[in-house]
Amino acid sequence: MSIREIPVPVTGEIVLPNGEVLDINQLPNLDNGETYGSILEVRGVEDAVATATPDFLISADDFPKSIYGLGGNDLIIAGIQSAFLYGNEGQDQLRGGFGNDVLFGGKDSDQLEGEQGDDVLYGNQANDALAGDAGNDILLGGEGDDGLRGGYLVDLDFGEIDQDGDDFLSGGGGGDDMAGGQGNDFLSGDSGNDALDGEQGNDTLDGGDGFDNLTGRSGTDLMVLSPNNEGFDRISDARRWLRFDRFAGGFDL
Description:
GO terms for molecular function: calcium ion binding. The chain is an all-beta fold and 253 residues long.
């Protein structure tokens, strides 16, 4: 059992648990001249806590664990087994691994990527970017204006990846931008003025309160319009099924 600190090299490459090779010069969160305080390789422990400076934490074995970021802009990457990743303060990047992971962003604007497995991603406060990738994922934006992507990753410094999955996306507060991707997804805008795009698959879109834009695209999609929701919704794809729950409000086809 160990938490081994690796000296931060000026140049070179790091091999991640999934076999991906990461160029040290391309580590995110360094565009403001800030450097990582340490690179921590976590093995055989259930709980690992970073320092108050920006850290790069790697789960380097198949042992289930929880990794906590604390302060600074951290990059935390899960391994083979299921993990709980907590960014806490700072603008963090959390990446799940091969297991069913739980990613919790924290207080600032974070980037969460589920990767493999059936993951739960929660942005919490501020304006977050969430990508489910493979598996049947649950994405919860929380407060702020968030970007949620169920079935694929929109470039989070590591390129674009196409993935499947039947996902649940919930925007929470703020004006959110949500896309289901592939699979049969459920998108809920909740409060705020949201943009919901089902993309591929047979999706269900519920704008919630606010002035929302609902787009079904391919598949047989269901648009939910309810009298309990305050606001005006625009249906950009009127060929899809509409469900009126005794609708009393405004909408535009």
